[in-house]
Amino acid sequence: MRSHLKRCWRRYIAAVLLALPLYAYWCARRDIAQAAAGRLYADVASVPARKVGLVLGTAHYLGKGRENEFFTYRMDAAAALYRAQKVRYLLVSGDNRAANYDEPAQMRAALLARGVPAAAIYCDYAGVTTLDSVIRAGAVFGANADLVIISQGFHNQRALYFAAHRGIDAIGFNARDPQSFHALRTLTRERAARLRAWWDVNFGEREARHLGPPIPIGAAPSSCAA
Q1: How many domains does the chain have?
Q2: Would you say 137 and 5 are in contact if contact means Cβ atoms under 8 Å apart?
Q3: Higher pLDDT pick, 145 / 10
Q4: Would residue 193 count as lying in a domain?
Q5: Closest by CA position to 131, among listed 57, 28, 189
Q6: For residue 222, is it within any domain?
Q7: ∠132-135-141 over CA atoms, to 5°?
Q8: Helix 69-83 × helix 103-113 angle, to 10°
Q9: Within-domain flag for 164
């Protein structure tokens, strides 16, 4: 009898341990979708004009010098919004922790090549994660409203979830989605990223790794290194 009860308890505990992460992921998908509802745009003409476009970072190149389509399409989208006067400034936010890896510098160079003037580009060198980029856009660069987040749609949803939690009035403009094996891997990793985002918002209350003095966009000179 005792042996039977032990087996039942073990099965019950195993079922609970399996169900908890599945339930958490379901909550994450639901909450992130709700935060982004009605705030995503895919057509330049339909985007309400706002002051700042926050361009979320990614590497320019993949292994063996291959072009990263996520990067290319984000830069295309950001430049298109600027040319259409949907944003007055672009804040390129990414990782710059390694001496030979500088996402903001790569994004700035790509935007300059697409005709965006240097004075319209601000650089956030401490956008280590999506959460850091969103927090710093408001806390450091003063973009607590009038903000368009620019990335692929799945990424924008998560960024808007962070923005809503932080009281930042933001919308998202969806860059084109790549159709490649690399894109499939990225979408697979997004599942874990959404679960982490839900945890950070509801339990972690994680802050940005770095803040620093204010750099108000439009009032202070461009924050990009020459």
Answers
A1: 1
A2: no
A3: 145
A4: no
A5: 57
A6: no
A7: 110
A8: 50
A9: yes
